[in-house]
From TrEMBL:
This is Diacylglycerol kinase family lipid kinase. One of its GO terms (biological process) is phospholipid biosynthetic process. GO terms for molecular function: ATP binding; kinase activity. InterPro entries: ATP-NAD_kinase_N, Diacylglycerol/lipid_kinase, Diacylglycerol_kinase_cat_dom, Lipid_Phosphate_FormReg, NAD/diacylglycerol_kinase_sf, YegS/DAGK_C.
Amino acid sequence: MNGLFFIINPAAGHGKAKKVWNKVKKELTRKKVSYRSFYTEYHGHAEILARQVATLQNYHLKTIIGVGGDGTINEIVNGLSTFSNIQIGFINAGSGNDFSRGFQLPTHPVKEIRDILLKLKKPLQKFYLGNFRLEGKKNGHYFIKSIQIGLYAEVKEALKSNVNNKLMARLHLEYMGFIISLVKVLSYYQPFTLFVKVDGELSTYQNVWFISILNIANYHGRMKIASNAKPTDGNLDVTIVSNISRWKLFKLIALNNSSKKMKAESIETFACKSITIHSESPLLVQADGEMIGESPVLVSIQKDRVALIK
Ligand SMILES: Nc1ncnc2c1ncn2[C@@H]1O[C@H](COP(=O)(O)OP(=O)(O)OP(=O)(O)O)[C@@H](O)[C@H]1O
């Protein structure tokens, strides 16, 4: 077996990543697996490290394993976007668990590394990736999980800027932190008019709260969105939530409380290959949980772009 390369984000999971990495290291030593490891030092560093390691290894490298959260795996995937034969493993050490949940990966570090070691010799499994490009920018970037636009992106940003966020995470009160941010943003956020071009066809939506574009199924609080989203089907799964009162929206996201009538009137879901999003004023856009800028944005699906150990 070739030596393995690990990229660890020590800031992921509010510092949990270091403990996770220590458990993984013990298991690697126990199994006498040779490896090299690199710690990220700043935002975006995992992308640079992944690209540098792949380039220096002169295309002989077979595997890079990320230890972190969804942001870390996103950066590694972007760093390896021109090395589609390098397989990427993931050990979850983030605050959320969306990527592991979406790909049905184990969530305990020792189980995860054992699972990766077992699967290393299997044939490469390639998955679709989403691609996005903000209007006016020359280059696009990839996402593996989701693009969020509107209220939900605002809630995530409010959560990150909450000074008590770290403390709540330590006390395992992340969900309460999310609810506090949701209530805060709902108190001032105004719905918007959305202009979309879906596979070439134009539509307008009024009173929109948020739009989610997914490659894998995901959760907004307790609300599961795009249950059918799969990184193997070549589609983007879009959910648009509009024309709903603040209170009903709160119940929908926080408690997954919805009626058939509400679903029919307020939640539209569809699959597509590409979607362009415009609005009257710019909206926050997140990719894989990281803020990337403001709308307008063009999102599309790209075939066989990433080899993941799954
Ligand atoms: N050494 C570092 N110090 C501070 N931030 C870092 C460092 N290395 C990477 N980062 C940044 O940390 C951010 C969070 O990383 P990541 O998303 O992996 O963890 P998380 O937010 O805890 O997990 P999740 O997104 O799954 O909830 C990313 O924007 C990443 O670029």
